[in-house]
Write a structure and sequence with these properties.
Aldehyde Dehydrogenase, Chain A, domain 2, alpha/beta, 16 helices
Amino acid sequence: MTDRDLSSEARLAFSRLALLIDGQWLDAQQRRGEPVLDPASEDALGVLPYATLADLDRAAEAAQRAFQSWSRTTATERRKYLLAASALLRERAEKIAHILSLEQGKPLAEARAELTGAIEIFEWYAEEVRRLYGRTIPPRAPNVLQTVSHEPIGPVAAFTPWNFPALTPARKIAGALAAGCTLVIKPAEETPGTAIELARACVDAGVPEGVLNLVFGVPHEISETLIRHSAIRKVTFTGSIPVGKHLAELAAAHGLKPCTLELGGHAPVLVCADADIAHAAQACAAARYRNAGQVCVAASRFYVQHEVHDAFVEAFSAAADALTVGGGLEAETTMGPLTNQRRLDAMSRYVNDARERNAQVHRGGERLARPGWFFAPTVISGLGDDALAMREETFGPVAAISSFDDLDEGISRANALPYGLAAYAFTRSARTSERIARDLRAGMIGINHFAVSLAEAPFGGVGESGYGSEGGSEGLHAYLTPRFVTRLLM
């Protein structure tokens, strides 16, 4: 099938946007909804139905009912379902990648890579579920048997953002289902098509009715309804810090429900004088402008040792010049649009603040004069730590660069913000590398590269970037609770 055919099929999928509740697909009939917009053109792709309060109750009750049987399935059975779903996703990968690129805006190559990562998550959890080992504790008295097992925590309410519409839902769906939990998930309304395809693959793989439920609507109405619902026993959320704090308060007030919170970041990058500057600048630019900067673990604020600062800025700017900005499905595109108007407004705010502080805007700094939410790749240097772009998560194609003198200063400034999701550094010194790995305050640290998101590794932060992890064995155990049993054998 040609790219044109795949694009047509992807557009057709937006005429079938639906909720999934208790095994049934429910369309927009007799439900209010909202248009889903193409960020490259601002045209409507389709109409997304909103769940009613009755729909939400039904979804939570379906998850509770299905939990009774799903939690008792064997690890081998759950593995079978997850592998079947991943196989279907591989078969449908090109179509889904086109859907993802249309609704989110990222270049098709990035959409394909994201979908590959999502499929790997399904496959990894399918294998890891067979290693849900318990243990036997040596007794203190004869004829006593003491065991620890790991039991699924119960029905889960999950909430995911729009920037990675395949990868983030996959972490929550595959992790919860592998652990024996059922799920009501609310993906982002801006990018529903990709999550619907993930759910469709699970249904087509035979996942029983009620195990996975998919809803959309007004975010605060859905989160407050689901978290308060007595059926829900855990909350998992990826998104902003203020919303994460609010959901944690709701979860505490309504049953003291445990949460996994992957919240905002503003990842520092230390570029030391002994680094390979050409490699560092190219890697940093690629990491900054991937998905137009809309990445929670993106390289975001750059601290460059003063001896190599100018060379780094020059090489970074050259890498920005080499980007081709356009629609995600355009063959030559290497950076797509922002996902919504709000991000455009935010970019202008950061650039205007930098100019007011007499920082130097080397590249970009403005919206592109074409339909869609496009902002030029932007490079700014000479920023103090009080600049907005150095203090707030920019979440867009704005690179904020500052210089530092020695490693003590660099580490101190990198750790100065309350965020702690990801952090990075470039150095050829093993001693410096060890110190950075020890002293940077973040849940994930990359040295000389940016590969911190892997199916088999924990993904999560510290401080105001949240708590708990997804991915790795830690992500599986986030949906489990330990059970200790001691038996006196008569």
